[in-house]
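We emphasize that the prediction below concerns an isolated chain of 238 residues; any contacts that depend on oligomerization or on bound cofactors are therefore not represented. The input was used exactly as deposited, without trimming of termini.
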Amino acid sequence: MDNLIKAIEIEKQLRAEHKFFYGTFIPKINELGFKTIDEYLKLKKDYLFKCWNPKIFRFDASILSEEISKAISNNQESIFIGQGEGVYAFHGDDYIDYDLCNELDVKIVELGYKGGTIIGSNKDLQMLIIFPKIMMMDEATITNKFIETITKYVPNTTFEKNDILVNNKKVAGTTWREFNDISVWTIQVSFADYSEYIEKICNKPTIKEPFYIDNNLLTRDILEQEILAWLIKEETNE
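Result of the prediction step, given as a token string:
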């Protein structure tokens, strides 16, 4: 374990100095007892995930983008969970009618991702996770955990192009972005029907029919609890 920690520190230092190259790094980890780079990478990923201790933020979705920007700027390892009253429009880079949203009393949350608008409220699970890149936590690992958890309760759950589907209808959408030394993964899982809002606000025709998870099968709170139990040992941060 000591040699693994030493190897991780060497990698961190080389990356911080912009001097990291596998050609020079591999001999260093060979000296520490690692036979291959794949062996080191697997052990590193498992160790860093086990030791990961993010700060959990629960914020009204209306100020979510502001707090996320702060965390990204500070490289703060974090889990953001949206909450607050009312209906929200999580806005990417597609056109949105601000006046119409105001008329419908829908609060716009600017998240700046590539894609269309997502409608949600505190009935749904909105989660954003900020990892250091060195953890090598990839999009597929996190998404698959959500799919695995939902599938335990909800039949006919599948995944297609960043979306989780139930009976071929979209119940969740995910995004993945990278900023310097961190990776940011986001999901919105719907537990309520927003078809009327979507029809009025979203200017593009929906490729996948929007739907939601039946609370009689799985609730928002249970999904959140199971995902947090996987991500961290216990929720001790406020």
